[in-house]
Write a structure and sequence with these properties.
CATH topology of the largest domain: Creatine Amidinohydrolase
Radius of gyration: 24 Å
Number of domains: 2
CATH superfamily of the largest domain: Creatinase/methionine aminopeptidase superfamily
Number of strands: 17
Oligomer: single chain
Strand content: 15-25%
CATH class of the largest domain: Alpha Beta
Length: about 475
């Protein structure tokens, strides 16, 4: 194509860069269903339950106008995205079956048939599909096999896109405290009903076995984490471009969501978090309605969901284009901590060892007290869920990382009395030799960050005619 006129190059460069970043995700169609991948995961769990039957609950349909997302445990073992399914794995016979309900539809059927109406699902998905109405009959028959002594169920609650098992447990407790609407979690009630069919079986928690499997990602999973990282980084970079006083937080959010959607992502990993100025200490702020002012900082916490694997990214930047001296001092500490933690990640590293690396940086910058006040927090695991399996407290502090572990590095400095919070966050894959930052596509170093703010982006142009804020 002809080379653009020199005077147009500065205007076109950011847009050309965006096109180059987005082209691979847009041109690559979603991969065909890999039944061998999910079958191999089931086999690894079957190896551990030869004395029993495992029952894994799928997610239930909801009334909110958002796309259904399958329960992580169920998706990990099946790859199936329909609500209301139940997976049964028989360790004694090494057979797997999915029990599917007959779903109601209003209007013409969807282009993709329901699982129960799919012709030859065993050939297509690698697993037998049976009517949900026969679940209890099937379980009671299988339970009388002398080799079957244990019923493995999700006694530790199923996690979800946003919350770890522990966070779900806390949320369930809070919900049960409601004197009017409180009730036991549906998953607990379902497990009681399933166990009642064969009460002679010993009830055991399958969740620790699933956690151990999910904690180490397969090459299939890592490719999806990488894609989610690239798209998420492009989205956050676009959100930073053109930032200026007078903009609203929702404009920053909209720029990232535009890129994520255009790149073909399944959706947001979580709603955009864009607090500015005095709102920055609100960790999971999602209103995004404030108008940003000169001299303030803003940060964006955001990620992409690509085929059920997510990225999680945070960047903090100055609304006016450059940090003040005080802001820059704090930012440099967080940046150095981020870089030092990433550099120390490799097989054999532990959360405890990485916290010590971070502690030295914070102390050197004079912020050791603030680091201790944060609980020495440096990040969390990520994968199918934003807060994926992998305990960041207790005995797991000494659990060595292995190749295939995915950890989100997230150093923070917060000063509640000054209403100031600075954070950086990147999704890191542990490789055989070190660390791979899959969200490095959005800069964190100061000068590249300042240069990115000055570039023109989707927020640089005025709103269309008739549009008002």
């Amino acid at each position: 194509m002809p080379r653009p006129a020199p005077r147009l190059v500065p205007l076109l460069r950011p847009l050309l860069g965006l096109v180059l970043v987005l082209a691979p995700p847009r041109l690559a169609a979603q991969a065909p269903f890999d039944k061998a991948e999910f079958a191999a995961r089931r086999e690894r769990l079957l190896d551990q339950i030869s004395d029993g039957i495992a029952v894994i609950l799928g997610g239930t349909e909801h009334s909110y106008p958002v796309r259904f997302r399958q329960s992580p445990d169920f998706y990990y073992l099946t790859g199936l995205q329909e609500p209301g399914l139940v997976l049964v794995l028989n360790g004694a016979t090494r057979k797997a079956s999915v029990f599917a309900p007959k779903r109601q539809h209003f209007g013409p059927p969807d282009p993709t048939p329901d699982l129960r109406d799919t012709e030859n699902p065993l050939e297509r998905y690698g697993i037998a599909v049976l009517p949900l109405e026969g679940l209890f009959t099937s379980l009671s028959g299988a339970a009388w096999n002398p080799a079957v002594r244990t019923l493995y169920a999700q006694l530790s609650p199923p996690d979800n896109l946003l919350s770890s098992r522990g966070e779900v447990r806390i949320g369930d407790g809070i919900a049960m405290d409601n004197p009017v609407l409180g009730r036991r979690p549906a998953a607990e009630e379902a497990i009681d009903r399933i166990h009642a069919v064969s009460p002679h079986l010993t009830l055991a928690d399958v969740s620790p076995r699933l956690d151990a499997l999910r904690w180490v990602k397969t090459p299939y999973e890592l490719e999806r984490v990488r894609r989610a990282g690239r798209i998420g980084a492009a989205a956050v970079a676009e959100a930073i471009r053109g930032t200026r006083p007078g903009m609203y937080e929702y404009e920053v959010a909209a720029a990232a969501q535009y890129v994520n959607t255009r790149a073909g992502a399944r959706g947001d990993a979580f709603p955009p978090i864009v607090p500015s100025g005095p709102l920055t200490p609100i960790v999971h702020y999602m209103d995004n309605t404030r108008q940003m002012q000169a001299g303030e900082i803003v940060y964006m916490d955001y990620g992409s969901d690509w085929e059920y694997y997510v990225s999680d990214i945070t960047r903090t930047w100055p609304v006016s284009g450059r940090f003040t001296a005080e802001q820059e001092k704090i930012y440099r500490c967080v940046l150095e901590a981020r870089n030092a933690i990433i550099a120390a990640i490799k097989p054999g590293a532990t959360l405890a060892s990485l916290k010590e690396v971070a502690a030295q940086v914070y102390a050197r910058h004079g912020y050791g007290r603030e680091f201790e006040a944060s609980g020495r927090y440096i990040g969390h695991f990520v994968g199918i869920g934003v807060h994926d399996v992998g305990n960041i407290f207790g005995p797991d502090l000494q659990k060595p990382f292995v190749a295939g572990t995915v950890f989100n590095v997230e150093p923070i400095l917060e000063f509640p009395d000054r209403k100031l919070h600075v954070r950086l966050e990147d999704t890191i894959i542990v490789t055989e030799t070190g660390a791979e930052n899959v969200t490095a596509g959005v800069p964190a170093e100061l000068e590249p960050l300042y240069a990115l703010i000055k570039q023109r982006g989707v927020n640089s142009a005025p709103l269309g005619a008739g549009m008002t804020r």
